Amino acid sequence: VPPFEGLENVKNKFSFMTLDDARALEKKLTKDEVLELYLNIINLSNGCYGVQSASMEFFGKPVNELNLAECACIAGITQNPSKYDPLHNPNNNKAKQEIVLMKQSVC
Asked: Mind listing the pLDDT tens digit for each residue in 75-107?
């Protein structure tokens, strides 16, 4: 991944990206690299930006130590961070987590 000046710069690049910018980025980075950048800046509620921050906030451990159910909990937040916030809306998050796990088992 090419160096960026900082996380704020990456957030700004994604927030204000034009179609031409997206095409240029697609030529410089692999899809996995774009996904990694995105997952490190996405809002996951409770002031958490990125999966590592969410992992520490919700489970008190780094993302590489999460189990499948914990990963599904965080993955479920992405669609609507307020609605699926595990601390403020645990029932919504649990229902979404189960959907994520069910879809995972079908693939």
From this structure: 999 999 999 999 999 999 999 999 999 998 876
CA 13/CA 1 separation, integer angstroms: 14
Contact 28, 1 (CB under 8 A): no
Under 8 Å between Cβ of 49 and 60: no
Whole-Å CA distances, 96 to 10, 53, 66, 107: 28, 20, 17, 17
Residue 44 has a CB neighbour count (10 Å cut-off) of: 25
Tell me the CA distances in angstroms from 59 to 28, 55, 73, one per residue in order: 34, 5, 10
d(CA 54, CA 84): 13
The confidence band for 59, taking pLDDT boundaries of 50, 70 and 90, is very high
Q: What's the predicted TM-score (pTM) here?
A: 0.75
pLDDT for the residue numbered 105: 84
